[in-house]
Amino acid sequence: MKIFRLMSTLFFLLVLCLGIHAQQRLLGGDISLLPSYEEAGTVYRDETGKAVNPLEYFKEEGWNAIRVRLFVEPDRAPAEHKGEGVCQDLDYVMKLGQRIKEAGYQFMLDFHYSDTWADPGKQFMPCRWKNSSVASLPDSVYQYTKKSLEVMVKAGACPDLVQVGNEITNGMMWPAAKVNPLGKDNWDIFVKLLESGAKACREVCPRAKIIIHTEKAGEWDKTKSYYNHLRQLDYDVIGLSYYPMWHKAVGVLGATLDSLAVDFPDKEVMIVETAAYYSHEKDQWAKSADQYSEFYPISTEGQRIFTHELVAELCRHANVTGLFWWFPEENACGNTVTEGWLNRGLFDNRTGKALPAMKEFNRFIR
Questions:
Q1: According to its UniProt record, which reaction does this protein catalyse (predicted)?
Q2: Residues 273 and 266: beta-carbon distance below 8 Å
Q3: Torsional class of 296: left (φ above 0), alpha (ψ -120 to 50), beta (otherwise)
Q4: Where are the beta strands (DSSP E) in the chain?
């Protein structure tokens, strides 16, 4: 009897994995700052130096999906964050979403539920809800999400995928819904916020896939505990951030993906953010030229090798259905769109030319 149950379970997992594998893989990037670069007259070039239209070029490179972030009221963000690219309000995202859909891409909308960057170290409560009672927050999230999506749909920019929160391992809208993936505090209100956002998505965009996005790909105990808390939540995709400088070696990610396939077999997994350094030039946060070089050299070749190894690993996992580069459009050649350089994009900040990692990236679907 035990053998029969084991065989039945293995058969179920095999069928599920084959079903997931049969789905179209998504390849793309978060290009939220592209309109700002275009407005500044930035010229993007392919690897030979030929000027290209970014959205057309990405399509030629095999991309079929684009991700864009949405802040609640980015005009209220600190000046330093605006200098880093915080400007994506609803009107901005609606217009970019229209272009993305018209170009034939699938569109991933990333709700930050903040006026500025939302990440593991900061999930600031939007100014409009700072004086609201905790009990009223779920309805506020529902109404905001619903109205935002209705605007997008009416404009012909209906998202195909929706992130309810950005890198929310530690919760969101602090302090009300701040959580510890291994703790117990505030999970009730946090889950209610997620339920409210998901409910709005199902009502306005019933065909869209809902993503819950975390950033502990290198720590299985926290990842498992976190998604166990959400067993009853209505969502479709486990979204992960994976950066080699913060989330350990590619092999560690592979182990996490294997474990997700066993413990959460009904969920697709997407790497909704990844990137690696090719330089630290004009990087205001880098303390040395070789910082974060534990696994890969800080060079264009190091970035290429990382991308090659990442794609090779992801292609081993049937549950992985999407891969997105974060800030691939960074291109400081001839402009000052941002204060300082990150040097983690797919274009050289000095020449505007596509980097070698671009050709490795597209192997995910080729």
A1: The enzyme specifically hydrolyzes (1->4)-beta-D-galactosidic linkages in type I arabinogalactans
A2: no
A3: beta
A4: 26-30, 44-45, 51-52, 65-70, 106-111, 161-164, 171-172, 177-178, 209-214, 237-242, 268-274, 320-326
What is the distance between the alpha carbons of residues 309 and 289, in angstroms, rounded to a whole number? 23
Could you tell me the CA-to-CA distances from 20 to 24, 36, 269, 273, 306 in Å, in that order? 9, 36, 10, 20, 25
| Range(s) of the domain holding residue 223 | 2-364
What predicted TM-score, i.e. pTM, was given to this entire model? 0.93
**Interval 301-360: pLDDT, tens:** 999 999 999 999 999 999 999 999 999 999 999 999 999 999 999 999 999 999 999 999
Question: Which phi and psi (to 5°) does residue 209 adopt?
Answer: -90, 135
212-226 b/e (C-beta count within 10 Å ≥ 16 → b): bbbbbbbbbebbbbb
Q: Which residues pair with 323 in a beta bridge?
A: 27, 271
Phi and psi at 103, nearest 5°, equal -80, -5
In this structure, the number of other CB atoms found within 10 A of the CB of residue 2 comes to: 6
The total of structural domains in the chain comes to: 1
